[in-house]
Amino acid sequence: MRPSIRALVAALLALPSALAVAPPAHAADPTTMTSGFYVDPDSSAKKWVAAHPGDGRAPAIDASLAHTPMARWFGSWSGTIGTATGAYVGAADQRDKLPVLVAYNIYHRDHCGGHSGGGAASPTAYASWIAQFAGGIAGRPAVVVLEPDSLADYGCMTQTQIRERQGMISGALAEFDRQAPNTWVYLDAGNPGWVSAGTMAQRLHEAGLRQAHGFSLNISNHYTTAQNTAYGNAVNGELAARYGYTKPFVVDTSRNGNGANGEWCNAAGRRIGTPTQMGGGAEMLLWIKAPGESDGNCGVGTGSTAGQFLPDVAYKMIYGY
């Protein structure tokens, strides 16, 4: 039986609205859309080497740090955030490279630790900021680590604050899903020495991990890749048992060459680890924390501020002393 003209017209009129609500088609693998990882041309190590060519430490820092792909962190210091992320991923895209970005501006950031306190002025302000962050990336391939420490840093928070934070994280994932379909987003899961695997699995799930590509480990810390791999597998075991799914994970290897010594904040005697690469026990090994950048006014970085480049710390980290 042939459809009536009225039925055909109704179907055609309904088509645009149906397309408007269709979910974005996510890339199977943005790493296959690019030819390797992007080296930040304005990394702290690169800028320091350029400004101090006569310094005796410059050749080692240049050779070991300045040309290694690592993440760029974005926060309130980044200016208009959509412009900033757009420029960064655009530059990487022009070179056919995969950029790694860190979103670090959540409301009540580092609420319990305090060394990197700050962030957006309110949950509403954060929602606007992260929407612009994702919009700047748009359809270009990228990797985003979403708010380091945000799910492990619950120790001093009330249940209301925790639910508020979970809402901000899940809202951020929705923005990336809507605006940045070729971006892999990783929720941060702390490190092996912070929260038990079972507790972290619950926190990840409640924050929306099912909608993310995976989770990240060891950011700005020093645990070995083997320790992180065991922890990541344990988290996945808990996810599978409790919720029926698992996720890939990445490990920050930028400062784990000598493992951990019980200190996390500018710990002495640490060493750079395996450079950014695919695989290595995890989905990717990434340099997320830039070696030589301070964790705050602590340890061998006493007197510094979080994110400040310390050339002597960087130099010693190359050799592990």
Which key phrases capture this entry?
9 helices; single chain; alpha/beta; 8 strands; globular; 10% strand; 38% helix; disordered N terminus; 321 residues; eight-stranded mixed sheet
Question: Summary?
Answer:
This protein has 321 residues and is α/β, with parallel strands linked by helices.
Please report the number of helical segments: 9
Strand order of the largest sheet: 1-2-3-4-5-6-8-7
Order of helices and strands: HHHEHEHEHEHEHEEEH
Q: What is the residue-mean pLDDT, rounded to a whole number? A: 91
**Cα Rg:** 21 Å
Which shape, going by the Cα principal axes?
A: globular
- Distance linking N and C termini: 82 Å
The largest β sheet comes out as: 8 strands, mixed
- Residue share in β-strands: 5-15%
Low-confidence stretches: 1-25
Structural class: alpha/beta
Helix share bin: 25-40%
Number of strands: 8
Describe it for me?
With 321 residues, the protein is of the alpha/beta class. The protein contains nine helices and eight strands. An eight-stranded mixed sheet has the order 1-2-3-4-5-6-8-7, covered by helices on one side. It is globular.
Question: Which SSEs are present, and which pair or pack?
Answer:
Elements: H1 5-20, H2 44-51, H3 58-66, E1 72-74, H4 81-94, E2 100-103, H5 123-137, E3 142-146, H6 159-179, E4 183-188, H7 197-206, E5 214-217, H8 225-243, E6 249-252, E7 277-278, E8 284-286, H9 311-319
Parallel strand pairs: 1-2, 2-3, 3-4, 4-5, 5-6, 6-8
Antiparallel strand pairs: 7-8
